[in-house]
Specification:
Helix 12 runs parallel beside helix 15 and helix 13 (about 380-390) runs antiparallel to helix 14. It is built from 16 helices and 20 strands. The longest helix has 17 residues, at about 295-310. It is of the alpha/beta class.
Length: about 550
Amino acid sequence: MYDFRKSVVYQCYFKSFFDSNGDGVGDLGGVTAKLDYLKTLGVDYIWLNPFFPSPQRDNGYDVADYCAVDPRFGTMADFETLSQEAAKRGIRLMLDMVFNHTSTEHEWFQKALAGDKEYEDFYIWREGGADGTPPNNWESKFGGNAWQYVPEKGKWYLHLFDPTQADLNWENPRVRQELQKVIRFWMDKGVKGFRFDVVNLISKGSYKSDDQGDGRRFYTDGPRIHEFLHELSAATFGTDAEIITVGEMSSTSMENCYRYAGADTGELSMVFSFHHLKVDFVGNEKWVLVPFDFLKLKNILFSWQTGMSDHNAWNAVFWCNHDQPRVVSRFGDEGEYWAPSAKMLGTVVHCLRGTPYVYQGEEIGMTNAGFTSLDQYRDVESINHYHILRARGLHEDSVYDILRVHSRDNARTPMQWDASAHGGFTTAEPWISVNPNHTRINAAAQVGDPDSVFTHYQKLIALRKQYDVIAYGDFAPLDQQHPSVLAYTRRLNGEQLVVVNNFYRTETDWTCPVDLDGFTCLLSNYPDSTVQTKLHLRPYESLVLHRAAK
C-alpha cells in the first residue's frame, strides 16, 4: 500500500506537457513518453488534468462525458497503456473529477434543454424577476452574473463558472448515483487516486441575493457538503484502502477541513486550500498589483500546519498548479537569484507536514509567461477580466501588467524540455506560446546537473522517503514574526528537523532558537552552508538541518 504521507504527487497539465503526435497539443501518449523523466524525479502519483470529451471552454473543466477520452488527447487504449507503463515504474495515476458542474454539451444538460423533466432536475434552475433580472445577484468566478437565461424555458440555470458550465443539483439523489458510477468506472480501470475540483461548492444553501458580497457565502462549504462527501466515499473510493483523494477547497474554512480530511471522518485523504496564495490579493480580488504580504503568508501556512495537525487532518502542500502563476515569479526571483530562490521555495513546501504536489515545470524553475498581447492568452478567466478591467477604465498597459502577474496562462505554457524550437514540446505550432526563456530554463540542461533546480527537487523528494520525521513528524513554527526568514521544526520520537529559509534577496542575520548541537545539514541551496546557531543568511539561502534520535 502506498502511504500518501510519504508520497509526492506530480501534476501533469498534459495539454502542455508533451505532444506525441505533432498536432501542437499535449496528449496522453506524451505523458507515457516522459514517464522515465518522472521516475527519475522520484514522484509516486501523476495527477492528470481532465482528458474527457469537452468543448474546451475552460481547458477541459467543462466535461461533456465523464467516462471517455477526448480524441484530441488520445484513446482509451492510450490511457490504459499509460496506466500500465506508469505501474511498471511504481507510479500511480490520479484523475481530476469535475463534479460541481458539467459542460452544457453534456448529454444530461442537452436532455434538460429538450424538456426531459428527469434531467432538468440534474441542474439548478430558478425563475428570475418579473423585470427580467436574474434570480439573485451572485457573481460567476469568471466574472459577470452567475445565472444564464434560457428563453425556451423561461428560467435561468446556475453557473458558478463559465455560462457553458452548468452547476449540478447534488440535492437530487440520481445525480449523486450517476457520479458514483463515474468513480467506479475509473476504479475498475485501476485508478488509485482522485482529485475533486472545487468540491466544497456542491452543496448550495439559500439562493437569496447577497447584500454583503458575490454570493459565495451561500454556496461555500454548504449545509450538506460533509454528508455528500461521506456518501461518495462510502459508495466508491472508500472501499479501496489504496486509493488516495484530494479535494480542491475554494474559499474554505480550516474548521471544515478538519472534517474533509480528518483521519477518521470518512471523507477525503487531504485537501487543497488556497488562503496562502491570496497574500498578493486585496481581499478576494486578485486582479490588482500589490506586493505579497510575507508575514501573512507565514501566519497562514503555520496556522494551517498546526491546526490540521492538532485535529489529525492532512494537507496537500503546494505552491503551484494550473490555476496559479509560477511561484518563482511570484515569491522568488526571475533574475540573478533565480536558481537559489526556486530551490528555497521547493524546500519550504517539501519539508512541511502534508503531501507535496509538484506542478509540471516547477521542478526546473519555470517562470511566468510574460505575454504582451491579448491574442497570446487562452484562459477564459484572463480574457474576461481583460475586458472587465478595461471597462473599469484601466489603461491597457496596466491591464497587461496585471495579467502578466496573475493570469492562469502563466502556468499553462508548454513544458520546457530543451533549447530547441518550441522547447521540445512539439514539432508543430503549439496551442499556446512557449516561454522564450526555454533556451536557458529547460529539463535537458538540468537532469544530471548536481547543482540544478531539478536535482534539488529530486533530493527533496528522496528525503521525504528516507526520513520519517518529514513524513510523520509534528510541526512547530520558529521566530514567526521575523520579517524575512521562514523557519520551522519537525519532531518525531527524538528525531528533529530544523528548516530555515531566507525569503528575500537581501542578506540577513538570524539566530536559531533551537540548540543545534548534534545537527548536520541534509540539504542547502548553497554549496558551503554550515550549521551555526547564529546564521548569516545569503539571498534566498535555505537549509535543512537534521539530528537523529539520541
